Every structure is written in structure tokens, then in C-alpha cells.
Automatic annotation (TrEMBL):
SUPFAM superfamilies: P-loop containing nucleoside triphosphate hydrolases. This is TraD/TraG TraM recognition site domain-containing protein. It comes from Crocosphaera chwakensis CCY0110. InterPro entries: P-loop_NTPase.
Length: 905
């Protein structure tokens, strides 16, 4: 690291001026990249000017603590916070919390999705989502919130910080002098730096990671090299980084280092766009103005309840009017003995002042209070609490100075007493520099005046920004947290998860499911939806299917004039030969199960006197013979090649083509017994029965819809008895499995589950999906109006034991106890979902939900304006939509665009 220092430069007017490079403010030598097996972590390597003191700064992403906690969870958290007593001496811990109105990354993702589809109709829906997110961001409703934790490992003059006495330091100095005299200093210094880099990971990083994760109990993820560089770079620049940074790579297991160098110093590369302009009361950087506020005194919490201390900052930092700010708290462990001596001195001074006042007949109230507080502080230290030196700073960013002044005044007003939070008016630029723990050596608020405040262990939570809502996932379907406004991602597009959605009618459930389906289309996923139509025959997804006919197919299973080919295999043309074999075998296995149920019924019947194993075995052989038959294979191949609607498609093999394969001639059994003949006769009897029935004929026709449609809506009309519902459930299950085998990722949704699950066979099939669907990449979702009937269905255990995500909307007051008993929700929390104000906000057009992914987060769903116009289903909205369809007949994009404008106005 080269420090240029102050130089005299001739200005344009001929005068000489003194200038100092901005880079000289920082102590960065280079960046570090560690590889420990498959785990990567990053760090910065600092060197104090004019000394051989080195520091490594590591970073962690922190998920934070959920604002909704049980008493047991709260107790566990406070027990974990006591581990601050073990904070390494001589090291610093910096918490960097930020909240910004920024949707740039999300807009890039949505733009990529729009570019990946060819349909103008679909682009309009996706564009509506992007527009809504941008509007919410601009209004301050949607904010990106993060918490990064930075920790240090310091070596002073060859001795680890907090260790060694004056003798160790003298020996280190003598050793340095010897090497300089013998000319071996540079080589020894190089080896020492390599050792510091390696030990920084082994003794610093690993210790901090265990301490933060195991002792404190935080959910942390190490920051990689790129993430640390980007975190530094974004604080100076508006646009993405284009030039590489120098760094050193360390293979921990091999103990080898390699350097990636550049011609420019990393400090110069960080200032790619402009040099920040530091003023007394603000900093101009990235085209905006930054104000600095300092926590000047200990804030008083509203009550003695420990929870009030933990949630103190949440109540302030989550305000909707607060945005584009950063909150820093830096902590260093103090000397317990020195503080005890100081408190003892303060106590004696206060007692003496009180005695002197008493001699003169006066009462020194201030001295008495000071004595009591000092005694209490000493008592706290003797109760195994430790002192900590802290600095707390807030940075506010606004595009104008006037806006910054107003924002600083507003932020100060959020604190209960004047003087707790003050704006720095003299050397704001200096404090701003100290908020870079990865670049600066000096502590926060340490110079030029020591403005640290001393807290004991039990007081620390009130200045720790640990409690906030944060999404576990980084991508997916987006909700917005009701408190704090951070995006909460439901990552069903990235991984196969099982979900339960419960909400009363007119709570936004159909809008939510439609939005999930629409946003699945750019991911090339297949979705199968079971729904129960309304009494008038209409369905929840009719409008979506009519608008997107190229992506969505609607099948009324109660309309037996149509067809659903149960023998149609998955389309495996995009898979390797091995994958084709594996997926076809999986399909055949499920088809055998379906056929067995058609023969034996869906409930055991001992009176049949037919061996179920024999039935299953014979059908397995028949299915194999059917799909290995050359003619059958050719007919399937030609049907897929020519596509839906072609002559070859209409000639695709169906159930009636399969029945002849259940014969001795086709099976070629080596030994036949009377039992086998009896079983074969019974199989053919049952198949002939199904062939003549309306439902059997429905299954014996080629599919009358595009089976490669990404969205398939199966309307289960006519569920009147157990037998039909069992077969329909098996058909739906079989169709979903076939589609999951044709597509690498798929979604299965059972809408109106509280009605569907009245039929045990349907519930059992969905239960199988919850238990086994993840293996096939199937995302399983059930949606219903209530939890009671679902919790009592035949597959309740399989469903609830495997449910990853729970979404609860508006519920009825009488059903609160069900959620308390089944989901173990606190009564006070779930009772909010039954209040009159819960549900749909008609003015701002969002629905409210309780999102449960092991963290309880109240969230809002904001559908895009175009989707809202398309799906809104009250009578007046439906009538208006039909009016626009007729007016713009043949131009759905223009019609929906104009309808959206009408709804918006």
C-alpha cells in the first residue's frame, strides 16, 4: 500500500494549493478469497499506516431475528445475547443495517422473464407486475433491507490483538531489528504476511463464525469475495463494476496463496465514477447528499420488559416513511476492571458530594441519584455483565440538500427525547469514512474525539438492529412484508416445496393463485390445477384460460363428450436416453396403480376372492407389453411428431387399445393356472365395464386438449360418489405425474381442497404428492376456505407433516381455534386474520396474508394492474371486462390494456 500524502499542486489560477488523494483515507491493501473445501468466503486485508499492524475484516449476511416470537424463543434469544461477554478482546464487531427504495435487480429479473416469452398477452401481464413493483418502490412501500455483520482479526507488530504483554512486544521489535540488520527482513516479512492471512481464517474467521452462529444463535452466511467487493463498490458508484479487483486467493487445506494483481490500486478502482465531496454537514456522493446522525446518549426503553429493549429499534427503523438510510453499530469489548474502578470512583465522589451538602443543611438530589446509578452499574458488572464501547451512526441519503435536512429532522423526531440522536454539523465526512469497516482501521466515533458510549451486556439489545422481517429466499414469487416493506420471496420456482393456502372466500385467493401460475410460465414449468366449478358452471380460472389459450388448457372432466387419454405417455423427446427410460418406467408404475384401482376398487373387498398381487403383476406385464409393442410405439411417435389435432394425433393408442393386451396371447405367460385365468377374466370384465361407462369413454378417447399446455385446469364437475371421485382423483394424479415427467419442473394445485378432500380417494392421492412429489420436481399446493375439513381428511398426517410453507389469509372467527391447534399459532396473532380490517384493501388493491416458512411474517400480495383487471370477479368488474372484450374483439392485448387504464382511473 502506497500512501501519496499531501502534495502542492498549481491551480488553474496560478496559485499553489495543497491536495491529498482521497484514497489515502483508507487502509486497504487488497481483498482476500478463501477456499475451505467447497466453501468460499471473502475478506479485506488492511495495514495501519507507518507500522506493521495488520487486520483482516470478514463479512457475513445475517437473516436477523423475526419480530414474531414465542416466549420460549424470546428466552433463547436473550440467553444467546449473553454470549457477547465472550466477544474477543481487541477486536470489533460492526452491524450494518440498510433500507433502500431500490428495485433495480428485481426489474432486471422481470425484464429477462418478459424477453424469454413470445406472447404479447403474457408480456402485458408480466409487464404489469414490473410496473406495480416500480410504483410501490417509488412510493416507499417496497424496500430492500439487509443486515451485514463485519468482524476483525488484528495482529499488532506481530502479536495478535488482545494477547501478549510488553515483553512480547519488545521481543518482536528486537527480532524485527535483527532481520533488518541481516538483510532478510523483506523475505521474513513476506512469510509473516502469508502466515497472518492463513491464521486469520483459522483463528479469526472460524472463531467468529462459531460465535455468531452457535453462541449468539444468528442465521448467518459468509460473504464471498465478490459480495464484499460489491458491498464496498456500491457505496461509491451507481452503475455495475466493469473492471476486476486485485485479490489474493488462499486454499486453506493446501495452505497455498496465489495473487491476482491489477495495474491500479484497489482503492482507486473503488472510485470508478467520482470522488466523494466531503463537507462539514453532509457528503455528496453518487449524485445524492448524505447526512450523518450520531446516537449521543443511551436511549431509554419504554418498559423494563427485556423484549422492549430487543424491539426498540424495530419500532423506529420499520416505519413506512423511513427509507434510503443505513444504520451502523460498532462494538468493542471494554476492560471490566477499569470500569469497576471508574464506577467506584464516581460512587465515592457522589457520596462525598452528598455528605458535604448534608453538613451545610442542603440536599444534593443530583449527587444522590448519581450515587444510586453508580452503585447499580457496579452491581450489574458484578453480575457477570461486561462493558462494551460502542459507536452508533445513521446515514440518510436524499437527492437534495433540502430533502436531506427534512429527513434528518424527521428521523431525530422518532426518538423519545431530544439529544439522543443528533446530526453531525462539523465533521460529517470524517464519521462517514469511519462507517467503512472493510476499508478503515479507526473505530467508529473514535477520532478526533472519543464519542464512544459504554453499555453493559443487558443494555446492548437496544442498539442492535437485529430484529426485522427478511426473506430466506432471494428469488421467486414476491410478497411484501406489512412491517418494514421488505420483499418476501416464495421460492416455489427454484425448488420443489409443499404449500398450504387457507383463506375465506373473497380474500384474494384466486388472484394469488392466478399470479403464481402466470409467473411460472417464463420458467417453462407445467402446472396442473384441480378445481371445483361454481354452481353456474363457471370456474375460478376461466378468464385466465380465455386470455392465454396458447398457454392454458381447460378440461371439464364432467363433460364426457371430450377426452383425456389415460394411456398417453409423457413427451420425453427433450431428455437423454437414460432419462427417457427412467421417466417412462415411473409413468408405467403409476399407470399400473391406476389400472389396479379400476379393477379392484379403491377400498379392499375381501369378498372378491381375487389376489391383488396377481392383478398388479398381470397389469404390470400388460403395460410393459403395450408400450414395447412396435405398432403402439410407432403410433405414439407419429402422434407426438405431428402434434395436437393432426390425423396421427387422433390415431394415438387409447385405453381400448390396451385392453387386448390383458390376454394370454399377448402376455405369453409360461405357466397358467386356474387362478391366473380367473384373474384375467375378472380384469377384462372390469375393463369392459369401464369401457361402456361414460367415464370410461372419456378415458378411451384421445386427449381433446393440448397436453403440452403449460397450464392445465381440470374442472372436477360431477363428484357425486366415492367411485367416480376416486377414479377422477387417480386420473388427475396420473395426469399431473405425466406432465411432471414431460417437464423438468411442475406445479400441482388442488383448489377448494376443503370440498375435494371430502372424498377420501382424492385426499389420499394429494397426500401421496405431499409425501413423494418432491422427488419428481413437483411443487404441491392445496388451497381451501378453511382448515377444519382439511385437518380431518384421510391424508391429513401426510399433508401437514410435509407442508413447507403455510399462507393464511382472512379467516372466520369461529375457525381461529383450528389454527391454534393445528399450526400452533398464538391466539393473539391469528385472531388478527379474523378481524374486519383484514383481507383485501380495495383502495390500494392488495390482499393480506400470514406467511409461515418457520418464521411468521405478515405480508401483502400486490397483483399487477393488468392481472387484477383480468381476474377480478365481482359482478360489476366481470361485466366491465366482457364489455371491453366485445369492444376490442380480436385484440386481447389492446382490450386488456384499455381495461386496465379504466380500472386504474
Amino acid at each position: 500500500m502506497v500512501k501519496v500524502g499531501v502534495k502542492k499542486v498549481v491551480a488553474p489560477d496560478g496559485k499553489k494549493v495543497k491536495l491529498k488523494p482521497f484514497e489515502d483515507n483508507f487502509h486497504l491493501l487488497t481483498y482476500l478469497q478463501y477456499f475451505d473445501g467447497l466453501q468460499e468466503s471473502g475478506a479485506t486485508f488492511l495495514k495501519k499506516h507507518s507500522s506493521e499492524n495488520y487486520r483482516l475484516t470478514f463479512g457475513f449476511h445475517c437473516l436477523g431475528i423475526s419480530p414474531i416470537l414465542s416466549e420460549d424463543e424470546l428466552f433463547t434469544i436473550f440467553e444467546g445475547l449473553k454470549a457477547f461477554n465472550d466477544l474477543p478482546m481487541g477486536e470489533t464487531l460492526t452491524l450494518h443495517f440498510g433500507s433502500f427504495n431500490d428495485d433495480q435487480q428485481r426489474q432486471v429479473e422481470l425484464k429477462q422473464q418478459m424477453d424469454s416469452v413470445e406472447s404479447d398477452e403474457l408480456r402485458l401481464l408480466l409487464g404489469g407486475t414490473a410496473k406495480r413493483i416500480h410504483e410501490l418502490t417509488k412510493a416507499g412501500v417496497r424496500k430492500n433491507i439487509f443486515l451485514n455483520v463485519y468482524v476483525t482479526y488484528t495482529v499488532n507488530q506481530g502479536v495478535e490483538a488482545g494477547k501478549g504483554d510488553w515483553a512480547d512486544r519488545c521481543l518482536a521489535a528486537l527480532e524485527k531489528g535483527w532481520y533488518q540488520a541481516t538483510g532478510a527482513y523483506e523475505e521474513v516479512k513476506s512469510r509473516a504476511i502469508e502466515q497472518i492471512i492463513l491464521e486469520g481464517y483459522l483463528r479469526g474467521f472460524t472463531r467468529w463464525r462459531r460465535w455468531l452462529s452457535n453462541q449468539i444463535g444468528l442465521n448467518i452466511t459468509p460473504m464471498t469475495l465478490d459480495e464484499i467487493i460489491e458491498a464496498d463498490y456500491r457505496r461509491f458508484n451507481r452503475f455495475p463494476r466493469s473492471r476486476p479487483m486485485p485479490y489474493i486467493t488462499c486454499d486453506v487445506k493446501a495452505q497455498q496463496l496465489s495473487e491476482k494483481s491489477t495495474t491500479l490500486d484497489p482503492r482507486t478502482l473503488l472510485l470508478a465514477e467520482e470522488v466523494p465531496d466531503g463537507q462539514r454537514s453532509f457528503i455528496k456522493n453518487k449524485g445524492e447528499y448524505t447526512g450523518v446522525l450520531v446516537l449521543a446518549d443511551k436511549p431509554d426503553v419504554p418498559s423494563d420488559d427485556p423484549g422492549s429493549s430487543l424491539f426498540y429499534l424495530l419500532d423506529i427503523l420499520s416505519k413506512e416513511s423511513l427509507y434510503n438510510f443505513e444504520f451502523f453499530t460498532q462494538i468493542r469489548r471494554g476492560n471490566n476492571k477499569l470500569l469497576k474502578d471508574k464506577m467506584n470512583s464516581v460512587t465515592k465522589q457522589a457520596q462525598n458530594a452528598s455528605k458535604e451538602a448534608a453538613k451545610s443543611g442542603n440536599v444534593d438530589v443530583g449527587a444522590s441519584i448519581a450515587a444510586e446509578e453508580a452503585v447499580e452499574s457496579q452491581a450489574t458488572l458484578y453480575r457477570q455483565a461486561e462493558p462494551f464501547h460502542t459507536g452508533t451512526v445513521v446515514l440518510l441519503h436524499r437527492p437534495t440538500q433540502r430533502g436531506l435536512d427534512r429527513a434528518c429532522a424527521d428521523f431525530r423526531s422518532y426518538f423519545r427525547r431530544d439529544g439522543w440522536m443528533v446530526r453531525e454539523e462539523e465533521y460529517a465526512h470524517r464519521i462517514w469514512l469511519e462507517t467503512f469497516p472493510t476499508l478503515m482501521w479507526e473505530s467508529l466515533l473514535g477520532k478526533p474525539f472519543n464519542r464512544h458510549r459504554t453499555y453493559v451486556t443487558e443494555e446492548l439489545p437496544r442498539i442492535l438492529p437485529l430484529v426485522f422481517n427478511r426473506s430466506r429466499a432471494k428469488k421467486g414469487f414476491e410478497f411484501i412484508a406489512s412491517e418494514g416493506g421488505t420483499p418476501i420471496f416464495f421460492d416455489l420456482y427454484q425448488r420443489p416445496i409443499r404449500t398450504g393456502i387457507c383463506a375465506a372466500s373473497e380474500s384474494g385467493k384466486t388472484m394469488l393463485l392466478s399470479d403464481i401460475l402466470v409467473q411460472s410460465l417464463p420458467y417453462k414449468m407445467a402446472s396442473t390445477v384441480l378445481e371445483v366449478p361454481r354452481a353456474d358452471g363457471t370456474g375460478s380460472f376461466d378468464a385466465l384460460c380465455d386470455y392465454l389459450p396458447d398457454h392454458c388448457a381447460y378440461v371439464d372432466i364432467g363433460n364426457f363428450d371430450k377426452g383425456l387419454n389415460m394411456c398417453e405417455p409423457p413427451d420425453l423427446r427433450g431428455f437423454s436416453a437414460k432419462q427417457q427410460t427412467e421417466r417412462l418406467d415411473a409413468f408405467k408404475k403409476d399407470l399400473v396403480d391406476l389400472l389396479s384401482n379400476m379393477v379392484l376398487g379403491f377400498k379392499p373387498n375381501p369378498a372378491l376372492n381375487i389376489n391383488p398381487d396377481s392383478v398388479h403383476s398381470i397389469l404390470g406385464l400388460a403395460v410393459n407389453a403395450f408400450y414395447e409393442d412396435i405398432e403402439i410405439r410407432q403410433r405414439f411417435a407419429m402422434a407426438f411428431q405431428k402434434g395436437f389435432g393432426s390425423m396421427e394425433w387422433r390415431n394415438m393408442p387409447v385405453f381400448t387399445d390396451f385392453i387386448p393386451f390383458c390376454s394370454l396371447e399377448r402376455l405369453r405367460l409360461p405357466n397358467t393356472t386356474s387362478d391366473i385365468l380367473k384373474t384375467l377374466d375378472y380384469i377384462k370384465l372390469r375393463f369392459n365395464f369401464w369401457r361402456e361407462s361414460s367415464l370410461g369413454q372419456f378415458l378411451s378417447r384421445v386427449s381433446s386438449f393440448r397436453t403440452d399446455s403449460q397450464i392445465l385446469i381440470l374442472s372436477l364437475r360431477g363428484l357425486n360418489n366415492e367411485t367416480d371421485s376416486a377414479l377422477l382423483g387417480s386420473i388427475a394424479y396420473n395426469s399431473a405425474v405425466r406432465r411432471s415427467l414431460s417437464f423438468r419442473d411442475s406445479i400441482f394445485i388442488a383448489d377448494e381442497a376443503n370440498i375435494l378432500f371430502d372424498f377420501d380417494p382424492l385426499a389420499i392421492q394429494v397426500g401421496r404428492f405431499f409425501a413423494n412429489g418432491r422427488k419428481s420436481g413437483i411443487r404441491v399446493m392445496i388451497a381451501g376456505q378453511g382448515l377444519g375439513s382439511i385437518s380431518k381428511c384421510a391424508a391429513a398426517d401426510k399433508i401437514f407433516d410435509n407442508m413447507d410453507i403455510k399462507l393464511t389469509g382472512r379467516i372466520f372467527p369461529q375457525s381461529i381455534d383450528n389454527y391454534v391447534q393445528v399450526f400452533k399459532y398464538p391466539y393473539e396473532l391469528i385472531a388478527e386474520n379474523a378481524s374486519e380490517r383484514y383481507g383485501i384493501n380495495k383502495f390500494e388493491r392488495y390482499s393480506q396474508w400470514l406467511f409461515d416458512d418457520k418464521r411468521l411474517i405478515p405480508v401483502r400480495h400486490y397483483p399487477g394492474s393488468a392481472l387484477f383487471s383480468l381476474i377480478a370477479n365481482n359482478p360489476s368488474e366481470t361485466a366491465k371486462r366482457h364489455q371491453f372484450w366485445q369492444q376490442y374483439q380480436g385484440d386481447k392485448v389492446r382490450g386488456l390494456f384499455e381495461l386496465t387504464k379504466q380500472f386504474a382511473s
